[in-house]
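Hey, I was hoping to borrow your eyes for a little while. I'm sending you its amino acid sequence along with the backbone structure tokens. Take your time with it, there's no hurry, and the full record follows here.
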Amino acid sequence: MIKLDQFLKFMGVASTGGQAKLIIIDGGVKVNGEVETRRGRKLVLGDKVTVEGKTFEVDL
């Protein structure tokens, strides 16, 4: 498992944890098609994260 904010940093969507937090809190992230505002949301294998029209699948 990986937390949502860590995943955004890992994928290069956000350069810092603070930037990831702002993107998430502003409602700019969807997990499996639903807006997610919890930066600590734990992602599991197969989850799909969409940010700015780009979708990333968790395969860690």
